Amino acid sequence: MRDLVNVGGVAARSEYEVIRRTLEEVTGLLQERENLFQRYQVDSLAGLRQVLNDRSVNLAEVVLLIDGYGQLAEEFEDLSEMVFDLLRRGGAHGIHVVATTNRWNEIRLAQQSFFGTKIELRLSDPTESAHGRKLAETISAERPGRALLAGGLFAHIALPRIDQVASADDLAEGLRKLSEAVSAGAVERAVAVRLLPTDLKPDQVKIPPGKAEVALGLDERDLSTVVLDTEGADRHLVIFGDAGTGRTTMLRRLVSELVRTHGPDELVFAVVDPRRSLTDVVPKEYLGGVATSAVLAQKLVAAIAPEIEGRVPNSVDENAKVSPATPKVIILIDDYDALGSGASPFSALLPYIPMGQEVGLSVVLTRRMTGASRAMYDQLIST
């Protein structure tokens, strides 16, 4: 089904990220349509199509297919609430959920009423039938596709193939031919579920216009550029992650972008690198000092503190003109947890971190996830 022009994406059981992103995309579409319904004062998708002639807005009927509803609720409990939300709110906005399950009780009682149409194929245990045991027993295992509908009516489901072959043995091949036939005359495809690329090269990221803005990567929601404002809300940064998740790579990206937009007279780095993984990252003309242990870090901070202290504004006149503090000092700390748990070597800088904008100071540190909750009480991180 992945090749059908109507299919925006297919997620297997092992593809958690694809499952999550699919549900987030549909949920986002639901929220967008709710806003449009309210803005244009309509109560149906057909009414919205009449008043909104904009092809850039997706107004197609959307069907979320879930093959194994019980397994989804059991194995992906954190995602099941999104599905329930789509069940409750989606129908009126052209978003529908079609699900399969082995037995009715795999669907929570509070959710069953939201499935307006129920088709019951042969059950392994007829006593679990919603139509009664006797009626369920009339469906033979030799008649695949025979089903029960509301009111005790029978139905028969056809094989999804158009190649005149009445066999389910090679159904995948039949589906492939069906997809090819449907796609042959298609003008456009369904909007694909947006996923982050496995590998992302620097030149694939849009460069932001601001000098102090650093493009880190892409946002999975709309594939827009994720930007750090090193002169604003992101002046200080704490990066948590396990080994191999890209903590040091993120520091490398940060340094390379800031060096690209700033001259040596505008920016200086003080690097605390206990694992010596950043030795070749900062150009010499931008490097103010390097420390590879807690003792050396304390000495490095002691050398920086007087310079920062001298930048503290002393005037009480609100109208006094304050010149920007230059060069901007960025303290880079990689693997902060490797420095030990004793007295903080950065205590001399703690009073100046909250006034980073006034004194031209930024602190960027990385730390592993183990013990992260405890680390939030650390003096430097909590500041």
What's the short story on this structure?
With 383 residues, the chain is an alpha/beta fold. The protein has helices at 16-40, 45-51, 69-75, 77-89, 109-112, 133-137, 171-184, 247-261, 294-309, 356-359, 372-375, 379-382; strands spanning 62-67, 95-100, 146-148, 154-156, 213-218, 225-229, 237-240, 267-272, 287-291, 328-333, 361-367.
Overall outline: elongated
Q: CATH first level of the largest domain: which class?
A: Alpha Beta
Low-pLDDT regions:
none
Total tally of structural domains: 2
Offer a few descriptive terms.
31% helix, Rossmann fold, 12 helices, 15% strand, 383 residues, five-stranded parallel sheet
Describe this structure in words.
This protein is elongated. By secondary structure, it is an alpha/beta fold. The protein is built from twelve helices and eleven strands. The mean pLDDT is 90. The chain starts with 15 loop residues before the first helix and ends with a helix. Helix 1 (16-40) packs parallel to helix 4 and helix 3 crosses helix 4.
